[in-house]
């Protein structure tokens, strides 16, 4: 029972929101519109309650006083008549009838009848008749004698016994008509009558009795008002809650929106004002959804071809691996590399290359089922995820892809080109490999297809050499991952000497990895595996973080050096890499001008758009950029116009033999000449002897790098081979 | 051409004859003079002294004028400071004085060597107006006639009450006799004030069927008359009143005097007084006629059937 009462009490308190009211009044807690309205309602109710009670008290007091006086006047009139025998017979026995009459009126404390002089009491009645009530004062008698003919012919004395009794004193008058008044008698005659005072009535009213009655009435009245106000509060709070319900119902969708959820629908309220808010929210939600959809598409698709990109493909692949494991089916991944893309790009231009890529994407898309996924994996690489397909089915699809490529003709001006592709196929089997492994299988198979003469497909076989190679690659892959996780890569610094100002120290950051047996492993061993298994972006991030940290340390040690950091092609697709560089520069307080980023010419050509964006972004924050291995592959000088690089690193294969091979020398000279004409500086790699140095100096190269100039070292070398008085050949 | 008016200038002969006729008339007037128009000289023997000019007094004076064969002097009391002069003036004549109203009667009582007949005075006993030379005419209507009509109208009436001041023995004796004649018991209560009158009436109203409201101004006030009438209506009491106006307040029957009757009785006493040395007869002689009105509304309310003989007295206020 007690519990029930407690719960009822709690419920009422909650309903009336007294706690909120107190919180709002005291300034604590969070503010809420409903609580504030309820608090205002309660405050209003309290004010009304106080005003009503004060008004009730004042009005009641006035009414009681007024009524008391009127009642006293009626009593005086009645007592005037009842007391008549006292003045007729001078006897007191008639007072018994007065006592009997007033018995039921406890408010009448005493009654006194005086003679005409007002000094002699003819009779007394009432409960306090024997109390020490003073007689009439001569002044009062005199005033009453003068009151004849006035409207108020009685006196009120409120001072009797400190106001305990209200004393009403009235004269007893007799009248008689004038002697000739009855001749031609008229009630409306204006003839005055003879008047004579024969005594006085002294009536004492116990005002305390009325006050007690009034207090009791006030208490019950206040209680009723309080109950009514509480009821009004209760229903008022319900009405306010109901009225504000559409508004409070917006809290949930708004909170979800604040949490980033946009799968929210705000129902339209009936109230016009709130409906407008709901509509605005729904419009906002729709805009957010559209924006998210756009961003999602942008994040998941390749802007050129409209195909999904690498990250989306990887997610789909992971899902498919789970699906295959769960349903015990087979699927296939195709790694497709265009064979003559670089040639078309170089000969017909970038626009033609883009056109080719778009056409290839359309053809591939037309040859797959709706449930399959085609992605542009990077550059001229495409991947296809063929769901629920057998080994034979995958082979058929590969043949189909080869065929449509062979059939395809690209018309550009007056030239017609065709393009072939090499396809690597990796089957997805239940519970065997990760997504990276499967992609590596397909990549390896594609490489094998290219090795076997291009324009063909190769199915990855998990047996024989492939299996061995794959096992080795997977071993390296796992080792590399472990090294990244354990933060065990090591940086070495190879000098890049400024020919004109050799005191300006510049070093290229190179990477060494501890091998499984503890020996340092060269990048040429582990980077292809990392490339194949998609770890290059992670390695780049590690290098950036640690190289900039080291650079900050060198600067702190007083070595104002410049570091050149290599970025892989995969980092070009990492949209967060620019922000990472910004953050690390800021965190390490390294001036951006002391950092040079390098990217190979091949990567730049393969991801030209992304390379442009990244290079421009780095240049914008103050970093410099170098195009590495320039001169290899199908490099085109025209691309130099589009890439805002500061340095061109001449591929080492030309520099290495330029002292003995005139063609290489010519190539180096040509590159230097063109770079200078474009306002870019040149760095010669693989400088191996004094003669080469002299030739390079003579050809006007800006920087030199190589084992002869300086060996890579974990510690910064102090002495370089170049003489300080070396001067740049201006020609 | 302009035409003359024949009516204006009818001829010089007519004009001359008119002038001659007027001259003749003037001459005749001068030869035979007519008597001078002066007010008739007062006939010695009667002076009427009015208390004031109220209708009750003036009405009596008017009736005396009609019925008295000779001239008489009339005086009206003014302010009290004029009384001695007036008293002296009246005393100079050897006349019988008729005093109308109590103030006039009180002044006349002080006249030396005068025979005074007073009227329109109710409480003559209290004022000690009756002397061998000063007697009066009753101011109230004949009670016997009043009781007779009342009994006729209300045959079951057996007990009535009356409240008066003191010193009305003569009136009460006559009233008791009249009541007995009509087989009615009259309960008489004396009061000293209007308050006592009301109180007394309420006290003994349960013992009577009706109230005879006697016009004793000493124990009546307008408020008390109203209260008595209202109380009577509430209690279903029959009230015989002294004025027709009180019928509208619930009176059943009213009895009023007539100025002519008063004047006749006064002149009767005047003649008697003129013939003897004093004023012969009883102190106050009763009136002979009364004007009775019956309130039909109250009669109906009190379930009284108005007999055919009384139909001529009905009145519906």
Mean pLDDT of chain A: 83
Strand proportion of chain A, as a percent range, falls in 15-25%
**Biggest interface:** A-B, 25 and 39 residues
> Would you count the extended β strands of chain B for me?
13
Unreliable residue stretches of chain A:
723-731
- SSE class of chain A: alpha/beta
Uncertain runs of chain B: 1-43
Which percent bin holds the helix content of chain B?
25-40%
Q: What is the radius of gyration of chain A computed over CA atoms, rounded to a whole number of angstroms?
A: 55 Å
Terminal CA distance of chain B: 79 Å
| Strand line-up across the major sheet of chain B | 7-6-8-9-10-12-13
Defining key terms:
heterodimer, A: 731 residues, eight-stranded mixed barrel, five-stranded antiparallel β-sheet, rod-shaped, B: alpha/beta, seven-stranded mixed β-sheet, six-stranded parallel β-sheet, 10 helices, disordered N terminus
Explain what you see.
The complex is a heterodimer of chains A (731) and B (317). Helix content of chain A is 52%, strand content 17%. By secondary structure, chain A is an alpha/beta fold. Chain A has an 8-stranded mixed barrel. A 5-stranded antiparallel β-sheet of chain A has the order 2-1-5-4-3, with helices on both faces. By secondary structure, chain B is of the alpha/beta class. Chain B contains 10 helices and 13 strands. The chains are: A alpha/beta (731), B alpha/beta (317). Chain A binds chain B through residues 80-81, 84-85, 87-88, 172, 174-187, 189, 193, 196, 198, and chain B through 51-52, 54-57, 101-103, 120-123, 139, 191-196, 198-199, 215-226, 242-243, 245-246, 249.
